[in-house]
Amino acid sequence: MTYPEIPRRSWVQRWHVKGIGGTVVLLVLLVASSQMTGVDVGMFFSNFGQFMNLLVRMSHPAWDYTTVIIQPLLETIQMAILGTTIGAAFAIPFAVLSASNLIHSRLLRNVTRLFLDLVRTLPDLLLAAIFVAIFGIGSTAGVVTLAIFSFGMVSKLFYEVIETIDMGPLEALESVGASKVTIIWYAVLPQILNQFISYFLYTLEINVRASTVLGYLGAGGIGVFLQRSLNEFNYSQTAVIILATLVVVLVIDGISNHLRRVLL
Amino acid sequence: MTTTTVMTKPHRTIWQRWNWLLWVVVIGALYYWTINGLKFTGLQESAGAVSRSIVDGLVHPQWSYVYDGSGEDLVSLILQTLAIAFLGTIVSAVISVPFAFWAARGTHERFFLRSGSGKVVLTLIRTFPEIVLAIMFIKAVGPGSYAGVLAVSIHSIGMLGKLFSEAIENMDRGSEEAITSAGGRSGQVFALATVPTIMPEFFSYTLYRFEIAVRSASILGMVGAGGIGTPMIFAIQTRNWPKVGIILLGIVIMVLLIDSLSEQLRKRLI
């Protein structure tokens, strides 16, 4: 009687080389990075009293401060709306240029995409710091920052939408000799409009969150007051600002989520 | 005698026919409010000159800053930024797991009290600005990268917990049922079915979050939480544009490298 042969395992599998190797690499990286950042768990707990003190002071919000921050909060929303609109408007031509089903030149597409990738690498606060230096302290710097930030994000979302459209109507129009503009207006636009609006609202949500801290570097909105209260160690005011921001973000998220559900 | 049937257009109510007008009015009013509410007075006369010197600085970066062995140069601070992001993400991934099981909707639950409360907590964590967290931790542990690590690890819970809990909700229950039907206890089901099914997705989301953490670690330094952000904000404030140029270049290269590396790894995982 012959037994079926037991499948041989290579030594990589038998000694779990991948699993153990991965764990070792992870541990080495963890130790190295905790040394590099000077992490000291004990220090956190020995200073825990100070941290708790801060939390206690934040847990008594100065409610009368609410009236002061309504105007800057509205300004924050306005900055987000305007910034997102400008960014999205500039994003549309770039999205069309980097969509592989509309533009057949690989070179043009790759150059556009590389440019968009570069724009997306820049963090929002970093842009804000530079634009505050150019435009001075105020909401202009904030709007420009948000416009560039959302331009990078929206253009990627948009070209991915364009690439998923049904090519049938495009080919139909092309076969009767329609021009490029006609094709985009009658075949592309009806297919993508709802998703565009949905992504626009999604970007607006992110921008409202981002714009609340931009003012920390002088780019207008509620962040200016956040920085002031933190610098004056007035944590009861900080607490009001954070709570108010939370409410605004949740309300905007709710409206935008509702609209997106209706649209799609 | 022939009867002709006339194709009638599908009937639409007045509301359906004219509600686009309402949207035009609402959106128009919103933009009117927006543009009138913002004061564009910030533009300085020096804006042109400053932009020109910025572009000049970006074109001629201060190459000597890249590495000088002092530990305060570009390469060491970029490595420190990566270390903040890495450590913060790993710690946060570990803390997120219980949060995820808290917020994940169970299969047999009728009232979503437990998962609902978990989702609210995760939303609150997500909305709390990371910069404020960093400032709070600076009060606790002093300025430096340790505060950055703490800020990243707490803030990331909000998003990782949400992604993890969605992964748990959408996971394939087949292997769990198999172990249960073979008589496995709940601990065995968890260890032999739940964890192996969910692990690749957890790793993939953690890597994705690491990409985001690298970006935020590079700006946390602006409030004093370590990494490349600290020399960046000093260079901007002292109008040292060649230095700003080289730091920007460093950040762009770092982010591009990390993004493509992480994308490669994630493709292999799933």
From TrEMBL, chain A:
Record's subcellular location: Cell membrane
Transmembrane spans: 20-45, 80-104, 125-149, 183-201, 213-230, 236-255
Main location: membrane
Keyword Transmembrane helix part of the UniProt annotation: yes
Annotated membrane topology: Multi-pass membrane protein
Signal peptide as annotated in the record: none
A GO cellular component annotation in the UniProt record: plasma membrane
Keywords, alphabetical: Cell membrane, Membrane, Transmembrane, Transmembrane helix, Transport
One Pfam family from the record: BPD_transp_1
Domain (ABC transmembrane type-1): residue spans on this chain: 73-256
Keyword Lyase set for record: no
GO MF, one example: ABC-type phosphonate transporter activity
NCBIfam families the UniProt entry points to: PhnE
Protein family membership: Belongs to the binding-protein-dependent transport system permease family.
Annotated protein name in UniProt: Phosphonate ABC transporter, permease protein PhnE
Annotated organism of origin: Levilactobacillus suantsaiihabitans
